[in-house]
């Protein structure tokens, strides 16, 4: 099958949708399908061989954060040329309503269209206002996928229609077999907490973790917090001036280093404050065999099996965060049991199963055309 995947966000910037598209393309290609990905990217960026650049993106406030998107007549021409050259059996658009390459591909595609909705948070007033104008284009979508029940609810309530839930995928073996790094590995007196995410996105909750540091250090003076992600260091230091020595900013990590960090940590902390539709990093940490403490958001609660596969705490509450983490640190046996349960549960999200489910969706929209 010839599959065209479209990502609306700049492919050279780390992000959950970008990682999902990249890994789906790799797994479909390994299964023998011809796959091409179209996405914005900076000039000269190192991209996988199956990615075609739609040109430079520009930062745009969208859906509660700042996304790098590509729109306009030049981008539309590149999208049309990619579609013509591809001769795809199916075109799979991710976040088709984002004002970028996915929406342009939706307008231009003549082959069957599958759309995946990743977000459970529609905060773009401009896009909400534009929905009546976009509805005719939405009728071109032959099948809709949502990455979670939260994302599916957004489709039903805000867009109309329904969607089949196919979760984000994770290469669970890669995380399970990653080698821990000695410099990131904790000790009983100096346990390691890990957090991944952009430093400048408040909804990732780094400020909540920093506010919990006095309680954490009062109980475990040697605790270390390793934070990986893009963003300036100075604002982070200002969040915890008295506890800055406990926070180590690693900057952005490549995939092998990210897996190593998750394998090395004693607890992965997800202090997000909202606007999460799934929680892919929770599954990655679970796959690595690391205990998870996360905000009690709907999406996180579902990934963590209502607390059976990880500890949940009240979102935005530093005291609750500290209590959940200290409970895990105080009982290594319970922490190890929780980590084992999480690792087993993470198998549900392995790409071997997820890619198969996506292919089943493709089959439903292409069967008639190939008959």
UniProtKB/TrEMBL annotation:
Glycosyltransferase subfamily 4-like N-terminal domain span: 14-174
GO BP annotations listed: carbohydrate derivative biosynthetic process
Signal peptide positions on this chain: none
GO MF term list: hexosyltransferase activity
A Pfam short name: Glyco_transf_4
CDD domains: GT4_PimA-like
Keyword terms, alphabetized: Glycosyltransferase, Transferase
Keyword field contains Secreted: no
PANTHER family: SULFOQUINOVOSYL TRANSFERASE SQD2
Name of the molecule in the record: Phosphatidylinositol alpha-mannosyltransferase
Source organism (scientific name): Kineococcus xinjiangensis
Lineage of origin: Bacteria, Bacillati, Actinomycetota, Actinomycetes, Kineosporiales
